Each structure stands twice: as C-alpha cells, then as structure tokens.
Amino acid sequence: MKARVTVTLKNGVLDPQGKAIEGALSSLGIEGVTGVRQGKVFDIELSHTQPEAAEAALKDACERLLANTVIENYRVEILS
Amino acid sequence: MKARVTVTLKNGVLDPQGKAIEGALSSLGIEGVTGVRQGKVFDIELSHTQPEAAEAALKDACERLLANTVIENYRVEILS
C-alpha cells in the first residue's frame, strides 16, 4: 500500500525559507510570484492491507515524528 | 491564483533522509512501514490570471531553481 503525507506550515507561522525562494525567483526574472511557502512530502510504502490501519499508523507517525503539530499541519492520503 | 509544486527524488536515487525516517518510525514502534522517500512541496501564490501562463512560469521556476532535474522530478498543479 502506498501513501503520501504532506506537512505544511500553519497559517501565521513565518516561513523565511519560502521568503528566500520568493526573492530568488524574482532575482531570476520569474515574474508574478506573490508568495511561497515550503513544506515536506513523504512517500511511504506500507505492508498494511487495510487502508484504515495504514491511515491510523500514518497519523500516529505524523503526530510523533513527521510533523511538529505546534506549527505544522499534516495531511495523509492513501494512494493505493 | 494558487499552485502547488511537488519535488520528489527520481527512482534509483538514494535517499538517506528517508531511510533515517524509516528507522526512526520502527524505533518508535510504528509497524508496517517498508519504505519512506522524502520530497519537498511548495505552495505558491501567483498574480497571473491565465492558468497556462502560471503553469509556464512555474515550470521555468522548477527547471531553474526549485528542482535539481538531474536527480529530482517535479509536478506542477494549478489549484485555483
């Protein structure tokens, strides 16, 4: 079973890395970018056969390791 | 206009960060994870009004800054 976990910063949390990318894009002459926020994505393979079990394991993984829930949101998608 | 760019390692490229996460999940007692690969996600706001123009600008941004196309794939999604 394959899954994708996306971890993004919560609204209101400053993202200096995103700001730096925004500045770099502008320096490169790429116009029209008004905001960038960077997050992380994890492509995970699991041996579970039940999607519910896989999702529960991944939520546990997010809460305990993959995301800092004070400043980050996470989203779990079961792909196949 | 909002868009999401996802940058992931190509198949066959080693991902020590993913391996470390896999080991950490196992140490935490989260069972059933057989593979982890980490990538990056960029949530981008653009002032373009045409989706085609936004997509072209983002592909340019990926080729020149956001992705290392030797080892990484990228995917551009226009969200709204």
Automatic annotation (TrEMBL), chains A, B:
- What is the protein's major site of localization? cytoplasm
Keyword hit for ATP-binding:
yes
Provide the top EC class.
ligase
Q: Which residues form the signal peptide?
A: none
Q: What InterPro entries does its record include? A: PurS, PurS-like_sf
Pathway terms, separated by semicolons? Purine metabolism; IMP biosynthesis via de novo pathway; 5-amino-1-(5-phospho-D-ribosyl)imidazole from N(2)-formyl-N(1)-(5-phospho-D-ribosyl)glycinamide: step 1/2
Query: Domain of life of the organism in this record?
Result: Bacteria
According to its UniProt record, the EC number is 6.3.5.3
Location(s) in or outside the cell: Cytoplasm
One family from Pfam that matches here is PurS
**Catalyzed reaction equations:** N(2)-formyl-N(1)-(5-phospho-beta-D-ribosyl)glycinamide + L-glutamine + ATP + H2O = 2-formamido-N(1)-(5-O-phospho-beta-D-ribosyl)acetamidine + L-glutamate + ADP + phosphate + H(+)
Q: Which UniProt keywords apply?
A: ATP-binding, Cytoplasm, Ligase, Nucleotide-binding, Purine biosynthesis
**Record keywords: Ribonucleoprotein included?**
no
What does the record give under GO molecular function?
phosphoribosylformylglycinamidine synthase activity
Among Gene3D superfamilies, the record links this protein to: Phosphoribosylformylglycinamidine synthase subunit PurS (3.30.1280.10)
The free-text function statement in the UniProt record for this protein reads:
Part of the phosphoribosylformylglycinamidine synthase complex involved in the purines biosynthetic pathway. Catalyzes the ATP-dependent conversion of formylglycinamide ribonucleotide (FGAR) and glutamine to yield formylglycinamidine ribonucleotide (FGAM) and glutamate. The FGAM synthase complex is composed of three subunits. PurQ produces an ammonia molecule by converting glutamine to glutamate. PurL transfers the ammonia molecule to FGAR to form FGAM in an ATP-dependent manner.
**Classification via PANTHER family:** PHOSPHORIBOSYLFORMYLGLYCINAMIDINE SYNTHASE SUBUNIT PURS
Which family, according to UniProt? Answer: Belongs to the PurS family.
Subunit annotation:
Part of the FGAM synthase complex composed of 1 PurL, 1 PurQ and 2 PurS subunits.
- This protein is called Phosphoribosylformylglycinamidine synthase subunit PurS
